[in-house]
Amino acid sequence: MGYMFNYLGPWRQQIPILAGNRKGRARLTFAEGEFAAVYAMSDVHGCYNELVKAHRRIEEDAARIPGPKLIVMLGDYVDRGPDSSAVLEFLSKTPPPGFQRFVLCGNHDAELVKLYRKPARILEWLGFAGPETLHSYGIDIEHLLQSAAGNETIARVIRNMIPERHIQFLESLPIMLRIGRVLFVHAGIKPGIDLKKQKDSDLMWIRQPFLDEGPQLPVLVIHGHTPARTPTFGPQRIGIDTAVSATGRLTVLTIKGTRVGIL
Length: 263
Known about the structure:
Blueprint: E1 3-6, E2 27-30, E3 37-41, H1 48-62, E4 69-73, H2 84-91, E5 99-103, H3 107-117, H4 122-129, H5 132-136, H6 141-146, H7 151-161, H8 164-171, E6 176-179, E7 182-184, H9 200-205, H10 210-213, E8 220-223, E9 232-234, E10 237-239, H11 244-247, E11 253-256, E12 259-262
Parallel strand pairs: 2-6, 3-4, 4-5, 7-8, 8-10
Antiparallel strand pairs: 1-12, 3-11, 6-7, 9-10, 11-12
Helix pairs in contact: 3-8
């Protein structure tokens, strides 16, 4: 059962339109009220079954809402859980009828791209991400390492087993989505820094001082990246990473008008 609260109502300040980033990943902007309902979730981390169930819940909820609907994914689709390959395949397909879906990039997604393009980083990557993503593509990385396979062999296996289209999908992902006064990013933003000057690395990796200080800009930031057992509410921010790979709970945040809730 969900709950709702009025998180946006008191704000009346107008915000200038976010300009395109001069380099790096794309940043998207829509007017306030462009979508009748917005559904956001983050840090799927290879939990395909939970992702599919969340989409079913969203479709059931949205069936009663006329007008355009949007699903926003806040990054980290790979690692930890068992089915990273299935998650990427699902998200690279068309969204449910009546929905648009924007899939943002998280730090784990960007790191998988780096591994694919530069497999010599395999030991560094394994220390960060673990082998679950490779297992989901049928790669027994422990066996390869124990057999003293060289970097060239490991690189060939990775490139043969992980579809190039999955990597191209991850490379194409935008880094930020803004709808009126609401900002969607993976990790957060650097407090007090103009949105046009935010670095992609901060948007994917930041924790402090953002978690304690909030954005220090006239926006509400919806983010993941920092896991907790339940959604977290800080200064002008809501964190929705509920560690689904450990807890089994994939939180779906909803925005309908000025009402923000948890589905």
